[in-house]
Design a protein that fits this description.
The structure is a homotrimer. By secondary structure, chain A is α/β, with parallel strands linked by helices. Chain A starts with a strand and ends with a helix.
Chain lengths: 348, 348, 348
């Protein structure tokens, strides 16, 4: 845990301080539970009601809220981003302690920077290249020809298959599997022939990959995750997917093979994206949507039918299953002949 | 495998025996495949047709079915629960054999009860506290400051990150990851800043966690799973979620950050629950539902549109994508002016 | 990497060669990026536009496309299957190097074929039976009584629980968990009793199982995966599911307990199949469908509502939530009395 004075924080991150610059803070906390050594923040209006009573040392908030703040305020245009920066000072990632745990199994042909840390019972395959200050946590398995850029951390029990390349400053959480075979099958006489998967996976810099996410190797060319991509837990990324820089994807989303997603997209949780599609830059897909055609215009896209009381939902769902019939009846009532719309619906 | 006489079972669990109290049974089986040393049960009416022909030693069933039972009957109000108790006698969990496998890597600062079992190639971090009769299976990794209450079992290849606290008598299946960072990101100038995740995970007593489920650590405060919660496989639980006592959640369900679920809820498979919601006690959510607003009234909630033949489904789905237009047309046919309903739908 | 002449390939696999039989190829590539030592293929019409410019050594394609091929052509009825066979010659699976890594922990009662490979830090439990030329990769954990047929490969960090039986020539990717307890709970006085899970898992020959897929052990009888089944990543298969031969299932699909799926089915990604159902042979379920009743007729089934622009989607979804009302209004406009259909919808 770090410690800093409010004055130091204000100077370092360029925010306006309302309060005592010498007050020292040591940790972060919620508005509701903060003690006087804590910094907290107000970004979501949902939590505004806790501001008046907070006992925090300081609150990071925007100019509009500063007047209501009963304690010191660190005023920023983007309070949540400012909070993130301050929290990183007070709660830095644990330092990487250089060295190999004697129980790690490292292939003699692996090249490991002396400043890197190799944890207990990790396995490092042939010709691996582990950069400066990397941390390979306990139980990780790196098969042959893996490359990790400087300052990349694999927390624990991560599996990197043959030829996976990861950039600098990445953070990979437990249970992640990168570089397993994609789902390549050729039907042949009622059976499935395996299509050898010979591509790799290339992951850029500053990528974070959540627990138990899987990213398959390419079938022929590589699967590519560009710089600054953030992936939550339990995401499945098929072979030859390409994800553009600074796109964030929430948990349980699945992306089928050969789909390209642009830069700065935000894909929410439990979304499904079919294969061989193109999603352009700056697309937001809300939770639980099913994307099965390309999206060529930035904007917001949705598809999740929400829950209702079961009795009511089932009545409506039963009607859904006869909706085409209902529409035809309406057309008839309106005195229109069956026409373009009806035909169109059949083609979809 | 245990063994018991029907008389012993009837006395121990308070059920009525119809048949020979000295008959010994050694294992459980299905009605259809049971042999004379087996106990079986009838709870789901779907399987009633197998009762007349069963060759079981005894059948656990309710009073109504007892007359039809061709073999000994153990009569109980709740036959499935009674079966569960009897099965646990005949098929007890394997005993925990105290001791550390010599290949396990245990930090010298860890405190491990002498009655606990630490499996092959397990890793136990600094200041861990492992309670009486715990079993940490092969390949498990416990990072620093983990606590396990008495009689908790981690089957194999479980990853517990820093500061995870688990209560007594829990059962955690392989591939589970508890305490990885939540998905906390602050947008800042077209990129994402990582928001340090500093909370923990606290899991109560008698919790079961299925294979490859992940539970993230809190962003600031802890993620909390209360006593008696049962989680199936491949569930994703975001940071700062709180799940109330004796709630059960089926496989592949995802729960976004900061959502609170009440006690005794039943959440079926592949459900998605958005973040920052409150689900009250005693709510049942059926399979494949998408919950994106709070539920404040106990009851049954549904949202899964079911499958149909592709041709028919696609016609109906095409109509769905023009449903607002259809509703406006009906309103016009009915001679009503566009009104509250139309406006309302736009606001949703 | 292998190498072959076009003549050798044509003879071995029975395809027609248009071009120089002595030209040697060493690897596969895409049409777009192939160099003169590469074999590529044209199967998906989407990629036809790359044919004229390809610099490949040879292209596998069908008779219709052969005339347009600017380089050597290997002509086959099923070009993708032919490509798969050729790719397997040029990119064979790495050979299994017999022997045990000294860091592996093998129970003395295990029987391991001398031609098998046991990787670094693998754990092999009591009475295991590992067949000829099997490969158990680094970090795999096999609990007691596991059986692997000849030529089966576990890539790395695979967990096989007690009594799992796998056939010959299977390929199991990292993060897979087979044989964990199913989700068997009996409600009893507001709590859940665990129902002991005592069945096993039996997996046939030529089965491939993708990264982080989980297959639960049976409650009483076994969970069964038949020959030639192909499972993608992050699939969840509940207890007592039975999957018929040569069925393929794409990523993130969940199958609840006691459901039987027939042979030669194709289940796409993110599908959910409820428990205790029967799906007959030769059924195709398209992406994102929710199957909650049995399917008794071969054919195509769909259920995924696709994404739309958020504003439009929400209007339509709001109408969906009042669809029963709309249908009643149409019936009234049509001058029909509320009747069978309305009642029927309530029963669903």
């Amino acid at each position: 845990m770090g410690t800093a004075s409010l004055g130091e924080l204000a100077v370092r991150f360029g925010c306006t301080l309302q309060g005592d610059p010498d007050l020292r803070v040591t940790h972060v906390a919620t508005l509701e539970r903060a003690d006087p050594q804590a910094v907290t923040f107000l970004a979501n209006p949902r939590y505004r009601r806790f501001l008046a009573q907070t006992r925090a040392g300081a609150v990071v908030l925007d100019e509009k809220s500063a007047a209501e703040c009963p304690v010191a305020a660190l005023i920023a245009k983007n309070p949540y981003a400012m909070y993130a920066r301050i929290a990183a000072v007070l709660h830095p990632a644990p330092p990487v302690v250089a060295g190999r745990h004697p129980s790690a199994i490292v292939d003699p042909s692996a090249s490991i920077d002396p400043s890197a840390s190799i944890g207990a019972l990790a396995v490092i395959g042939a010709r691996a290249h582990i950069g400066a200050r990397c941390s390979v946590g306990p139980g990780c398995v790196l098969l042959d020809d893996v490359k990790l850029g400087a300052d990349t951390r694999l927390v624990a029990n991560v599996t990197l298959c043959t030829s996976v390349v990861i950039g600098e400053r990445c953070l990979v959480h437990p249970g992640v599997v990168i570089g397993a075979d994609g789902f390549g099958l050729a039907p042949s006489e009622g059976e499935w022939l395996k299509v050898p998967q010979v591509g790799g996976v290339r992951i850029g810099d500053d990528v974070e990959i959540g627990a138990s996410t899987s990213i398959d190797r390419g079938a022929i060319d590589d699967t590519v995750i560009e710089n600054g991509v953030k992936l939550d837990n339990q995401i499945q990324i098929g072979h030859n997917v390409r994800i553009g820089a600074h796109t964030a994807i929430a948990g349980c989303t699945g992306i089928s093979g050969s789909t390209t997603i642009g830069a700065r997209c935000l894909i929410a949780g439990q979304v499904g994206i079919a294969g061989h599609l193109t999603i352009c830059d700056d697309v937001v897909v809300t939770g639980r949507s099913f994307v099965n055609s390309s999206i060529r215009k930035p904007g917001y896209y949705s598809g999740g039918i929400t829950v209702d009381e079961t009795t009511r939902f089932r009545k409506n769902a039963a009607r859904f299953h006869r909706l085409d019939e209902l529409a035809r009846q309406v057309r008839k009532l309106a005195g229109e002949a069956p026409g373009a719309d009806d035909a169109g619906s059949e083609d979809e």
